[in-house]
């Protein structure tokens, strides 16, 4: 069984993803604040933005957790098969 190495993202990638997140959230918030509409419409759009961001984080975490569970289950199954194969002696006909 080969050891599973954790995925490592580069520092540049992490910085880029956080910068893109902060910029998109800031620019959308700026756009909502500067809309020529009543405050209740701005509030409604702001709540929609907050809900969208929160549900996106939840979806990403759930997808990641599901993927990691499947990988772990596959590793456990692989280890069981390897153990069975290592214990099997084809010349022993008992």
UniProtKB/TrEMBL annotation:
InterPro entries on file: YiaA-like (IPR038972), YiaAB (IPR008024)
Keywords linked to the UniProt accession: Membrane, Transmembrane, Transmembrane helix
The UniProt record lists the keyword Acyltransferase: no
Keyword Transmembrane (UniProt): yes
Domain spans labelled YiaAB two helix: 13-65
Pfam families named among the record's database cross-references: YiaAB (PF05360)
Name of this protein: YiaAB two helix domain-containing protein
Organism this protein belongs to: Mojavia pulchra JT2-VF2
């Amino acid at each position: 069984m080969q050891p599973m190495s954790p995925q490592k993202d580069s520092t540049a990638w992490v910085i880029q993803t956080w910068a893109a997140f902060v910029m998109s959230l800031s620019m959308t918030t700026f756009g909502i604040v500067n809309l020529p509409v009543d405050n209740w419409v701005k509030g409604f759009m702001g709540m929609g933005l907050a809900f969208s961001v929160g549900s996106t984080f939840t979806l990403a975490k759930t997808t990641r957790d599901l993927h990691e569970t499947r990988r772990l289950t596959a590793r456990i199954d692989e280890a069981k098969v390897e153990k069975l194969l290592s214990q099997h002696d084809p010349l022993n006909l008992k």
